[in-house]
Task: inverse folding
């Protein structure tokens, strides 16, 4: 299975404070820059992300992210 989002894809994202599990979000990562991941879980300690394609690893899924690092929700891609 190929990744759902590739470099060069255009996405439409909207800033939102209401983030839910399974939302696809744009995150400002401290070392990777802007990334797109799915929300796996949310709790008082932060937001845990997951990749849709399990074959491709990412350091972003091994850490918790602050709500402030979320740029917006992805609504569709072009």
Result:
């Amino acid at each position: 299975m190929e990744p759902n989002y590739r470099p060069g894809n255009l996405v439409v994202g909207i800033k939102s404070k209401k983030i839910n599990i399974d939302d696809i979000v744009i995150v400002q990562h401290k070392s990777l820059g802007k990334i797109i991941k799915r929300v796996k879980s949310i709790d008082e300690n932060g937001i845990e992300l997951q990749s849709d394609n399990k074959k491709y690893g990412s350091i972003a899924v091994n850490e918790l992210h602050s709500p402030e690092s979320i740029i917006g929700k992805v609504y569709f891609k072009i």
The longest strand covers residues 33-43. The chain is about 0% helix and 45% strand. Residues 11-77 form a domain with the SH3 type barrels. fold (CATH 2.30.30).
